[in-house]
Amino acid sequence: MPDTPPPAAAPAVVGSLSPSRAGDFMACPLLYRFRVIDQFPEAPSAAATRGTVVHAVLERLFDLPAPERTLDAALELVGPQWQALLEAEPELAALLDGEAAGSGPDGDLPAFLADATDLLRRYFALEDPTRLEPAERELHVTTVLESGLALRGYLDRLDVAPSGDLRVVDYKTGKAPPPGFEGKAMFQMRFYALVLWRLRGRVPRQLQLLYLGNGERLHYEPDEADLLATERKVHALWRAISAATERGDFRPNPSRLCEWCDHRQRCPAQGGVLPPLPAGPLPLGVDADTDELPSPSSPLDEV
Hints:
Layout: E1 15-17, H1 19-27, H2 29-37, H3 46-61, H4 71-88, H5 115-126, E2 136-144, E3 149-160, E4 166-172, H6 183-200, E5 206-211, E6 216-220, H7 224-247, H8 288-291
Parallel strand pairs: 1-3, 4-5
Antiparallel strand pairs: 2-3, 3-4, 5-6
Helix pairs in contact: 1-2, 3-4, 3-5, 4-5, 6-7
């Protein structure tokens, strides 16, 4: 019998990209630099922290037996999830010193978490968790394309039907974009779909966004042509990032998002002083631990 050929070697990883960091570069190359190259810290945000707590509640809700997944049960999880987050990230205590905090209507909960009740009510208006059994929650996925570019991300939820069909679900604590402006959110979902397709050999049947800020649902059914186009876009984006990194040239792109940016004092487009680049070779891509977080890390990630 002829020898079985050895499996093809995996391509060498040349860099990594997540949907969040890809979104940063598309929105503002200078923001990408501040987050990936300089890795400047960003101040805790009440809006992003509220989003993180709500994401955690929706993850933990599915630990309960199906009949117990009620709105009241979800609301009871808000306090424990906030405390767990505060223990894991003590710097969030800074939110308790300002206008965004104070004593909320639920006793020990800070005031900025009061809106979590409305967000969870809207979630229950969008779907019935007693009828769902997610296959995965907060699933970290990664794949390496033939080019050597590693794609990484966290899926809020992955549902798998008895037929094997996949549905990717993402929770957004902001409001749905107006018609015609869904591109950023759908790019993120196509990015996830591309990773799953390359990992599992199956195109997800549906991509679903649940906007808890106004109770709207967006969904899309991709096909192979969509995901091949997404792969081409990701490669083009990576070439642009590589070129900017080689030149050390990351231009600001002023927009309405600047209002929520934590780096205005460093941005020349906002009258700030641009700091010099770090000494030595600039990193091309970053490690998995810093490339993508499992929940919103700043208000910009939810806008």
